[in-house]
Design goal:
This protein has helices at 19-34, 44-64, 73-95, 106-122, 131-153, 170-187, 193-213, 216-219, 221-232, 236-254, 256-267, 276-279, 283-296, 313-342, 349-365, 380-403. It has 407 residues and is an all-alpha fold.
Length: 407
């Protein structure tokens, strides 16, 4: 049975000892999310500011968290994978005419590794209790972005049955909002009934925003989130998730109005269900172009050729880098989910949280080129959380050896 009280990195004398650092991390997360505001999206100044803040955070950690060494079974594996991928890219750039340094995978991949290391080293400064401050900051800033998009962009929207989208950068912002939904659903456990009602009301409003944004690659992750909770959560939330999933299926299958609104208008966007390529925004054609392109460069890919663009992370990785080069990318992509499943049950909601985020991001990556590595700030919380949990696990074992008083 999962019990949140069974896993904690907090001792009474240090629960909020590093609150200044926690606030710093929270500010970095807030600014990262706010960079998706309509007024800031695409701004080079905003992009430079976010990069500077993350770099500063990493620099601070390498100074103040020297005790948390990089070497660890998982961090060592990630180091090997990163060297493997970098070596293949460099060799192919030198020996072939392919533009491997121009690969769309290169920057997001190493950026995700950097964020993982930041999370890993943050484990000695952030406790399971103080990380809730970061979670609140993430959720509130995500809600602020959702409200801003609704107020600014929705007034120009022509209707749910239109092919036009509410927001041009819908895919990135939808994933951030969806991650906030996961945080609120799994981590926020109000004791009062009224506050509990408010929690689910906020979740419904954020899900409603996702429907308006019509990022279908994110919307299809909602049922998977409920399945994860049903499979891994033994608390009452499993019951509620089961009821929610069954209610959703019943409504979709039996209610014509609900079907027209959510399937025909939102998922199909006025498109014909008979045209799969139209429904998928050209992804069927992209998938069909994969086989001819991949067959020409099976082992090392064709590099970052802009002539071939496929909105699917595994297919795009194979086309650009072939089997040899794409293998480290694919291994790295599934590593957070593998780690989450392998975590002991005593980690309770933390185990479920990592599984939920990593599993839904992988599903999203089947229909997006760079997920779970990018683009931009879309997926940073996955890698920060992954690194943090690896660090906490190591910290737990260290403290147990030192004083046997870890709880």
């Amino acid at each position: 049975m999962t019990n949140d009280k069974e896993f904690s990195t907090d001792r009474k004398d240090n629960m909020f000892k590093n609150i200044g650092f926690v606030i710093f991390v929270s500010v970095v997360c807030v600014c990262s999310n706010l960079s998706q505001l309509p007024l800031l999206i695409g701004s080079e100044v905003a992009k430079f500011t976010i990069i500077t803040m993350w770099t500063l955070l990493g620099g601070v950690l390498f100074v103040i968290a020297q005790k948390n060494k990089i070497l660890h079974s998982y961090t060592s594996f990630i180091l090997v994978v990163s060297i493997w991928f970098g070596f293949i890219v460099a060799i192919m750039e030198l020996l072939t005419p392919g533009l491997y340094f121009a690969s769309s995978m290169l920057y997001p991949f190493y950026l995700s590794i950097f964020v993982f290391i930041v999370g890993y080293k943050s484990a000695v400064k952030i406790t399971t209790e103080s990380f809730k401050v970061v979670i609140w900051a993430y959720a509130i800033s995500s809600a602020a972005v959702a409200i801003s998009i609704y107020l600014i962009a929705f007034q120009f929207y022509s209707g749910l049955d239109s092919r036009a989208y509410l927001y041009a950068s819908k895919n990135s912002v939808s994933q951030i909002i969806f991650t906030a939904v996961i945080f609120i659903l799994i981590m926020f456990k109000p004791k009062k009934f009224v506050i509990g009602v408010g929690k689910y009301l906020v979740i419904l409003l954020l899900v409603g925003e996702l429907l308006l944004l019509r990022s279908r690659a994110t919307i299809i992750c909602i049922p998977l989130l409920l399945v994860v909770i049903i499979l891994f959560d033994v608390r009452k939330q499993r019951i509620w998730a089961t009821l929610a999933l069954l209610s959703l299926l019943i409504f979709v299958l039996s209610n014509q109005t609900f079907y027209d609104l959510n399937v025909n208008s939102v998922l199909l966007g006025g498109r014909s269900i008979d045209n799969l390529n139209d429904i998928s925004s050209g992804r069927v054609s992209m998938a069909q172009s994969f086989f001819p392109a991949f067959s020409q460069h099976i082992w090392f890919g064709s590099g970052g050729s802009k002539e071939i663009y496929i909105e699917s992370f595994p297919l795009s990785a194979l086309v650009q880098h072939g089997i040899i080069g794409a293998t480290p990318l694919l291994l790295m992509a599934v590593l957070p989910l593998y780690y989450g499943i392998k975590l002991p049950a005593k980690l309770g909601k933390w185990k479920i949280l990592l599984i939920a985020i990593s599993a839904t991001y992988l599903l999203n990556g089947l229909f997006e080129e760079l997920t779970p590595f990018g683009p931009g700030v879309k997926n940073y919380m996955l890698w920060f959380l992954f690194g943090l949990l690896v660090g906490w696990n190591k910290l737990e074992k260290t403290i147990r050896r030192q004083d046997g008083n870890f709880r």
